[in-house]
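Office hours follow-up: a student asked to see two folded examples consecutively, so here they are.
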Amino acid sequence: MHGFFSIAVMKKSVKKNKYRLTEKENVAILNIVIIPIIKRRYKMNSNAFRSLSYGVYAVTVWDEGRPTGCIANSAMQITSTPATIAISINHDNYTHECITRSGKFALSVLGEESDVSVIGTLGYQSGRDVNKFDNIAYELKGFMPVIKDACAYITCDVIDKMDTDTHTVFLGKVMDCDVLKGGEPMTYAYYHKVVKGKSPKNAPTYIPE
């Protein structure tokens, strides 16, 4: 009401004084009065994003001879021929730096039976500070480190990327892939509802509770 009252007063003042608002004044009214009213009235419900479907993946990479990585939930197959995968990684993640430097990454598809400590180790601490794979079993597939306790793996060479304000979407050409122990892949919904896990703040789908 305060915003509309202000506009009404301005209109009355303009009519009385025959004063035309400058372009700068019109922009100021738009930014200070009108846009905040619209935002309050038509606020987005970010919980709608929870309706999108995601998985839980370990993105791994070499860091000058040692394996490191992080947890991601935004990964998908883009094309089948040639097979291409896209992943989204936060700029602040050390894994982002390593992928940018090496031009390669591996994706391990975690399952409902996978040890959840893998998620804690890869998702809630930085490879800058610790050797994440000191307590995680891994093996080499396609010359890349992949999680042993995973349903399947995919190794990729980066062929393109797209930067957003907070994340980079890496596009990878699939170089190798196979099923490991099979099982039911873990969905993000399963992770939240059954495992009772929370999203790291660097996750592309992070929504404050």
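And the second, which I mentioned at the end of office hours:
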Amino acid sequence: MFENFWFYFSKLDIPESHHVVFFAEDESATVKLKEFLQMKKLPSSQFILTSGYDNLANAQNGETSFFGFKTEEFGKLVSKRPAHILHTLSLGYKAVLYTDADIAWLRNPLPFLSEMAKSGGYDVLAPSDGVRNGNTYYCTGFMYFLNSKGSIEILKEWGDVALKGKATLKSQTDQDFYRTALYSHGPDYFKHGKLLSNRFANGVSIHRGDTRQNLKDGELYIFHANFVEGFQGKKKDLLRQHMWWKPDSA
């Protein structure tokens, strides 16, 4: 999945001043990532952070299995997301854009995100995965954080909620934890902007007419292969949209 992300990301000629930080969550992934970065002649020593897991992908009956969505193990894995973002902000960057690997970048979104955050006075920008209980259900797979007091506080709160949730709310996802942290405060706490799904498409909005037209016109920034579980399911979805790096693969 990472190879597909990098295939599209590297085509955008994003300036080197925008540093890329890779997060490898176990030792085997770290080794493979280092090999990939060396092959691409990228400075792997600066851009790899690990989370200390020995092995997240286990070989069973000759096949590789991964933590299932909404399992306790998956919850432990994704609960590290706010800590990763906080750590990166602490390095002194003015803003951090977090992206999952199951996203195809079709246009460079950074100028748009920077301008939207500045003009709207937003601390955080993220796409919406719909509405739940009357509130926007923000996607945590693509998030733009300014290095601001509001962003740092919500990331700390998100991390705290996730840690508590692992013990008491195992059925919830990191998006639920983020939503709990987000809506536990009033609007003066910090400002959150919504990225429209006809430009920042997900697994549902990609089928809408306005999104399809934006894709045709070259106006789509990203396609996130969410609402589908597992590597093979996401790969099929990306292939269906002609956004897989090896179009002839089955």
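Two things to take away from it. The two ends are 14 Å apart (CA to CA). The chain has a mean pLDDT of 83.
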